[in-house]
């Protein structure tokens, strides 16, 4: 990407990618599942810092596989999408927080579709059309997650976060945006 020797170093030292995966999953599940951790200062900030650093390293390692122009285009598309989605979430009279069950069904359907795509890839090899369809569906689902989470954080709807849950809200928004970025990157980018 921007600094070739850093990308080369990341590709040569896979142990740090695996370590980042471990830290990411451990801290993510701790933040999501343990209310005490995300509400206790200064541990909540330390956990958020570790979580952000681990996932940022993973995202950086992934983007090293793509050319710089593709990553920048993906960044702009993601930023514009997030801006418009946030404006829609804040200005619409539609209460997306009432659709929690729908989002659960969408999550399960997306996971099953992803497993099906993986099985098709294993049996028949890579299929560009299937990859594009899955990426498009996943991007749409993550846009809906972003609308939902924005409305939950802002409040004033059926479901809202309490003020003590600011760490949880930050984690959810970060994951929505980063997942959207990675999905769009996989859809439009050219690998180096």
UniProtKB/TrEMBL annotation:
Signal peptide: none annotated. GO terms for cellular component: endoplasmic reticulum; Golgi apparatus; membrane. It is found in: Membrane. The keyword Glycosyltransferase does not apply. One of its GO terms (biological process) is negative regulation of apoptotic signaling pathway. The chain crosses the membrane at residues 15-33, 45-63, 69-90, 102-123, 129-147, 167-189. Keywords: Membrane, Transmembrane, Transmembrane helix. It is a multi-pass membrane protein. It comes from the Eukaryota. Its main location: membrane. Belongs to the BI1 family. This is Bax inhibitor 1. It comes from Paragonimus westermani.
